[in-house]
Amino acid sequence: MSLLLLQAVFFTGVTFVDLAEIHSAGFSSRRAARKTFYERARVLYDFDAECDRIPVIQAALLLSYWAEAPGDNKGGWHWTGICYTLALTLGLHRESDSTLPARHIHLRKRIWWSFYIRDRLIALGMCRPLRVKDDEFNTPMLTLNDFDLDDLVTDEFYDLAFTREHQKALAEMCIEMAHLSVLIGKVINLHFSLIPSTESAQHIKDHTGRTTTILLPNVRVDQLESVILLDRDLQTWNKTRPLSTIFQPTTLQNCTISTSILTVHQAFLQFSFFSTMSALYRPLINRRSTSTDKLPSKFLQISSKRIEESGIELAAANRELYNLDFAGFLHPTIATMELPVIITHIKRLQHRHHGTVLQALQSILYCLKVLQKMQDMYPGVDLVIAFALDVMNRSGIELQTDNEQGPVEVRYGDYSYSIASDNLDEPHDSGVENDSPGSVFLGMPATIEHDNVMSSSQERQQSSTLSDLPEPQWDSQSDVFLTDTMDFDPAFSLMYEFETLNYREISQRAIHRPPAET
C-alpha cells in the first residue's frame, strides 16, 4: 500500500463523503478536509516517501485537481508536468511489451489515457499548451478489456452500485472521454499557439512570477476547412457513442446511488462535448473587427448558431443537475466551462423577446447556482464566480442573493427571473430548433457539410443543411461574448483575462456564500 497514493485518494474522495462523517473526523467543511489531505499528500511527495513510480504518477494525477488561486505554482499544471515526466520514463507512451502480464498492460494503458484526458482538459479550461503530441506516442486506445471488469464484481459490493453493468457503463464513459480528448487536442492545435498572432500580441503580461496563460488565439481564414472537418468529427462522436454515455436526466424519485453516479459522469461528457464545440467556433467570432482577412458572413452565422446552441444545451443540463442536487459532485473543470455559457446567455438578452430574455435569465441563474454548489468544495470556483459577477455587473444584470440560498433572482431591465417562479413541469424551450427527436439533451445539431467551406474571396452556395440551422438570437455577430461596455479580448474559455484580474479585489464581489454546511 502506497501512503502517498492513499492520501491522494482521500483528497479526491472526500468530495463524495457524507458531511456528517467529515465533521466527525474533525473537519469544519469539505474544503478544509480537501486542503488537509492535499497538504499531507504533497508533503509525502516532497519528501520522496514513495519510490515506486507507478503510484507516484497515479497520486500526481489526483493531486492535479487541486487549485486554490490563479497562478498557483503547484496547481494542476505543475502536477501534470510531473505525470508527463514519469510517464515518459516508464514508457507509458509506447505500446507495452506483449510478454508483460495482461493486468500490468491494462494498468499502464489506463494510467496513460487518464493523463492524456487530464492534459486535454487542462488545456481546454486553462489555455495551457498540450504536453502530449499525438504523433509522439503509440499506446493503443482503451477498450473494455483494459478495465478488468470481471475482477471487480463480487457479491459483497452488489449493493454499492458496483455491479458489472454499472462498471461497464463507467468504463464506456472513460473510453468515450478518451476519444473526445483526441478531438479536443485537435481543436486546441487548430486555433491556439505559443506564438501570439498580431491581434493577441498586446495582451497584458504578468510580471509577478505567477503561472500565467501560455496559449494564445491564432485564427486564420485558411483554417475554415479544418473547422468544418472537426465539426463533422465531433458530431460523429456524439451520434455514435453508446447509450450508456448519454446524459439522460432522471428524477429524484428514481434516483439511486447507481443512477446518480452514472448521471454525474454522463453530464461531464455532455459539458465536455458542447464546450469543445463552442471552443471550435468561439475564436472565429472573437476576431477583432480590424482583421485584414475577414471571415465569410455565412461562416460567422454558422459559428454564432453553434455557440448559442452549446450554451442552451449546457444551461438546460445545469438546471437538471441542480434540481437533482448533483451540482456539488461535478468535475471541477466544469467551473471554467460555465463562463462561456453565462456570457452566451448575456448576449442573448439583447434579443429583447420576452420568452428568450426569461430563458436567458433562467440559464444565467442556474449557472450561478451550480457554481455556488461547487464553491463549497473547490476554492478555485471563488474566482470563477467573481469573474462571472463582474461580467454581469458590466452588462447591467442585477443579482439578488439570500443568506441561506445564495443567488435567488436575476434582473435585466424590466425583466426578472427567480427560483420561486420556476416551474419544473414546464418544458424547456431552447429557442433553437432541433431536427432530432427526443429530449433537448439528446438532440444532435445539424452537421455542416464539407462543401460549405467558403474562401475569403468567394462564398460558396449554402446547402440545405445550413438552412436548417436556426438564426442566432443576438443582433450582431461581431462580438458574441462582448457587451458594449466591455473591452476584453476573449481567449479560449476567458481564462486568459481571468488570471490577470486582481484576485483579492474581485473576490470581494463574489456571491455571498451561505453559512458552513451543518
Automatic annotation (TrEMBL):
Q: Which GO terms describe its biological process?
A: DNA-templated transcription
What the entry lists under Pfam families is as follows: Fungal_trans
Q: Which residues form the signal peptide?
A: 1-19
- Renumbered residue ranges of the record's region Disordered: 453-476
Q: What InterPro entries would the database entry show?
A: Fungal_Detox/Toxin_TFs, XnlR_reg_dom
- The source's superkingdom equals Eukaryota
Instruction: Give all residue intervals belonging to the Xylanolytic transcriptional activator regulatory domain.
Output: 76-148
Instruction: Report whether Signal shows up as a keyword of the record.
Output: yes
| Molecular functions per Gene Ontology | DNA binding; zinc ion binding
Which keywords does the record carry?
Nucleus, Signal
Q: Which SMART domains match?
A: Fungal_trans
**Does the record bear Nucleus in its keywords?**
yes
Ranges annotated as biased composition (Polar residues) = 453-467
Q: What is this protein called?
A: Xylanolytic transcriptional activator regulatory domain-containing protein
What is the protein's species of origin?
Knufia peltigerae
